[in-house]
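[Q] Does anyone have a clean structure-token version of this?
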Amino acid sequence: MMETAAAANTTDEEGEIVTHDDLLEPQEQLSKLRELGAEEVKKAKVEDCKHSPANYDIDHNIREIRAILKMNAEILDRCMKFSTGGGESATSFKRIAYEVVATRARNDGTQVITQPIRTTKEFNTTPLSKLPEGLDDIIVSRKMIGDNLSSFIDFEIFFKRALLLHDTVLQPFLPKLKEHLMTIQVCLGEIDAWVIQETQNNINFLEETFKKKMEIPDDDQLGRNCICETHDPNKHCLRCGINYGLHKPYCPLSCLETNITSPVLLRRFQCEYYQVLKQCNSVGKFETTFNLTDEKERARLTKLLEFIAMY
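[A] Here you go.
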């Protein structure tokens, strides 16, 4: 036995004894590698995690991870309908939302109007595309399939592959994976709040305040040709970008042209998609705007409506 042990050991340049794994008994080598893998997993650092005490109960963690994966999939499915593309570290999303209410003087009175605005915002989606160091070399991950999803890891498959690990490695692996999935949930929650929740919250406020059913138009409706008789010559057409007063000589898209068979001018203007929320007679002119995402601005709008309602 002593001779076997001696044969399995050599010394490095500094004189330290080194054990060669390939000279160990198979089960000893498996056990050692699993222990080393478990130690590496424990060192894994998950970004934006509060590092609460780890629960190493395998059954408990499997149940929790299943629930987190289901919630993440639901949020991702909602949000990706609004994705405009991205890469490994960031993804852009669009929304069409009522963000501003304005008042303007019209026909000796005041109109309260709003319009849907299309905006795009970029979000950090690195957690969906990259595993924490320490987990990334235990199991090979696979990317998702689908529009704008090819940069994201398929965590459903990754989780199922993880369950093939020996309990020695699986026990510390699952808490780290769960921490990372919670980080993804926070990331998706921020996207969901901006794309869907803020939009719906503004709609709810407008419907409650003005007793009017609000609908969000799609991109095709925003790009419709308007039927307005006149436009402010200093405003620009959304179809071609030229000021209305300069359409005839300069418009590259022929928004305003004469029909060949008729002297009537063909209009293909696109103006802002205004909706009149309230119209009333009032003393004086009110020309101001209110940001619907600001509670103080909402309160200011409510007070103005109470004031003009007295006339």
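[Q] Thanks! Anything notable?
[A] The beta strands are 9-11, 17-19, 83-86, 90-106, 109-124, 256-258, 265-267, 275-281, 288-291.
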